[in-house]
Amino acid sequence: MIPKQFPRLLAVRDLVKIYGLTAKSQLSQNFILDKNITDKIVKYAKISQNDTLVVEVGPGPGLLTRSILETGISNIVVIEKDGRFLPTLMQLAEASEHTLKIIKGDMLKIDHEKIMKAAHIDEDRIQVSNLHLIGNLPFNIASSFLVQWIKMLSDRSGIFKFSNITMTLMFQKEVGDRIIADTTSPQRGRMSVLVQSFCEVKKIYEVPSSVFVPRPKVDASVIQLTALPNPFLKGNNNNRQKVNSYK
């Protein structure tokens, strides 16, 4: 695939300096400012023009977003809680001729209808389309995101009504290892069982702590989850209670 070319933009590292964008520890923010890393994440995630919609959670200053846009994807919605990042994201939206749509909000609380409306995808189309959810998740609440999304996947609600769903998510390495742990691993636990009941899981990339700004105390793992066509747990009331119990 030939990378899509955009008007020349300032490097994200420079934009961070210009706008004074420091990572907030209370939001568990850590930036990746090396585009070689974000390009690799997107490459290994296998985001392609066949994806009807890419949803990125917590884009921050937007370096991973740039790598996604360069695949030629025609529809990407980003959800960002921190309003400080809106100017840099708006520059990307303009440069992409609004292939990129921006929603300011908390992904844990947002009405998913806003995402569908921003993406211009109706109910009929959603059920025969591909969704790719991607994000460098804050380490302190990454598990909360995942449990909520697995619950929505079990219900086939919100954006999880898409017929084909892939999630490429970054976790603290220890959490990622628990998510992918198989039945022979001592790290296998409740989270492993929950996630693997609904998704095929695999580690696609390890991210050393040294690439983050500021540098965290732990490394990270990028985990890819592909929704199973026939999950081991069905979306009935009893199993909704089971999913809720993992919170």
From TrEMBL:
Q: Which PROSITE patterns match?
A: RRNA_A_DIMETH, SAM_RNA_A_N6_MT
SUPFAM superfamilies the record matches: S-adenosyl-L-methionine-dependent methyltransferases
| Tagged with keyword rRNA processing | yes
Molecular function (GO) terms listed? Answer: mitochondrial transcription factor activity; RNA binding; rRNA (adenine-N6,N6-)-dimethyltransferase activity
Top EC category: transferase
What are the GO BP annotations of this UniProt entry? Answer: transcription initiation at mitochondrial promoter
Q: Which UniProt keywords apply?
A: Methyltransferase, RNA-binding, rRNA processing, S-adenosyl-L-methionine, Transferase
Tell me the ranges covered by the Ribosomal RNA adenine methylase transferase N-terminal domain, including all copies: 37-229
What SMART domains does the record point to?
rADc
Lineage top rank: taxon: Eukaryota
Sequence positions that bind S-adenosyl-L-methionine: 30, 32, 58, 80, 106, 136
Q: Give the matching Gene3D superfamilies.
A: Vaccinia Virus protein VP39
Instruction: Name a GO CC annotation attached to this entry.
Output: mitochondrial matrix
Q: What is its EC number?
A: 2.1.1.-
Pfam families per the record? Answer: RrnaAD (PF00398)
Q: Which family does it belong to?
A: Belongs to the class I-like SAM-binding methyltransferase superfamily. rRNA adenine N(6)-methyltransferase family.
Q: Output this protein's name.
A: rRNA adenine N(6)-methyltransferase
Lineage, top ranks = Eukaryota, Fungi, Fungi incertae sedis, Mucoromycota, Glomeromycotina
